Amino acid sequence: MTGTVVKSTGSWYLVRGHADGQLYKCRLRGKFKNKGLKVSNPIAVGDEVTIEPEGGENQGVITDIKLRRNYIIRKSTHKAHHSHIVASNLDQAFLVVTLVSPRTSFGFIDRFLVTAEAYDIPATLLFNKLDLYDEDALGYMKQVMQLYSQVGYPCYPLSAHTGEGLEQVQELLADKVSLFTGHSGVGKSTLVNALVPDLDIKTSEISAFSDKGVHTTTFAEMFEVEPGTYLIDTPGIKELGVVEMKREEIAHYFPEMRARLNKCKYNNCVHVNEPGCAVQEAVKKGKIALPRYESYLSLLQDEDSHR
């Protein structure tokens, strides 16, 4: 029998059966190898798995995991030199950002976008807390939105609090598996609840299956908004280290740099201080935004420190 993992508590996995739509509480059978990936979670929300009934009613074991189409991965907060797969098999990802209380940094936004680019996941930026912006903040938000729109990332201003701009986002969810993530405090939970009004019912359905009284790490959770439309909610991410990326690859995941890579004088150019570098030239001329280039340099430094 096959199904999709909708929640993980670390020891138990909740799997929604493809044939019957039922929830099955499953354990893992044996060790699962992740093709050389050092991950703290062998199975992630969104994974397609094979299960066999075992134990009581609606219980089973996961015997196999299908090849992932893609995934969002970050550095593990618990295990050194390990990564954590946030969710897999996504059609799109939404990063909720705020420019006031708290302010999302360019570095955080760009790290997320680079990760999404690396795994071919279309990404969209949602600028929340519109109701808190004064005229200056609105002007600044428009500039930031223009910066990312020009590079090819759709940007939507909204307020989860007042409901402004939510309709547009709701339309984007139809018939897709969508991931929602962001820093703690950006209002992501309020937004997810506003987008899926009966989420409380769905949450309690899933919670009823989870271990009671056991302290479990909060992992991502998948909800069926309507048939064929799924939303994956994630706990707030403090930091987002880029994983599995070689130094010379990083520029490929910045679309505005990728477009200029074959114009550099040297094939192995890393766009820092090489002569005849098309990327540095574009930064000087304002064709590549300075905050984006600074994020790129910061990612290079990260890689250097992990060598």
TrEMBL record:
Q: Which GO terms describe its cellular component?
A: cytoplasm
| Segments forming domain EngC GTPase | 88-238
Cofactor(s) needed for function: Zn(2+)
- Gene Ontology biological-process entries: ribosomal small subunit biogenesis
What EC number is given for this enzyme? 3.6.1.-
Q: Which family does it belong to?
A: Belongs to the TRAFAC class YlqF/YawG GTPase family. RsgA subfamily.
List, alphabetically, the PANTHER family matched. Answer: SMALL RIBOSOMAL SUBUNIT BIOGENESIS GTPASE RSGA (PTHR32120), SMALL RIBOSOMAL SUBUNIT BIOGENESIS GTPASE RSGA 1, MITOCHONDRIAL-RELATED (PTHR32120:SF11)
**Name the record gives this protein:** Small ribosomal subunit biogenesis GTPase RsgA
The scientific name of the source species is Rufibacter latericius
**Source gene?**
rsgA
